[in-house]
Amino acid sequence: xxxxxxxxxxxxxxxxxxxxxxxxxxxxxxxxxxxxxxxxxxxxxxxxxxxxxxxxxxxxxxxxxxxxxxxxxxxxxxxxxxxxxxxxxxxxxxxxxxxxxxxxxxxxxxxxxxxxxxxxxxxxxxxxxxxxxxxxxxxxxxxxxxxxxxxxxxxxxxxxxxxxxxxxxxxxxxxxxxxxxxxxxxxxxxxxxxxxxx
Length: 198
Hints:
Layout: E1 3-9, E2 23-31, E3 39-49, E4 54-64, E5 67-69, H1 71-79, H2 84-87, H3 93-103, E6 114-116, E7 119-131, H4 133-136, E8 143-158, E9 189-197
Antiparallel strand pairs: 1-2, 3-4, 4-7, 5-6, 7-8, 8-9
């Protein structure tokens, strides 16, 4: 479980950067939430065309009700001061407060950098074509199918503000946390496969 201190912001003058003096940090540690999904679901479809000669299959994944430490934002705001929340007075107040609290030597809190990580991933799509028997026989086979498939094709919806909700520098979620710090997103790739039946 991860416990972090709560940060509240006293809203002052609009269009001014949040400062350390405008933060109120609770002295009580509160539980932010799990780093593994509480809810998971999958939706798969399969459609056949031209008497199932051509088939389209898709898979969508949903994972929700969990948090991820936005490590990239932590490094950009804290280590280098090179993020919108530090430099732009029109940045959302919550982002400014998170950056100020993470930079504070006396009230340091990463609370604002633990963000909701719910997402829907377009996990897989495949298109398969069954070659007519008369053409498959030229290859001395009984049947042939050509399949084009792709994985990790996109994230149509996410609450996560970072690059990718599945990026995790803690492989296998060891040590109790997700953190996208210097982690590449899941690779998108395409495969072509030929199945021959003898």
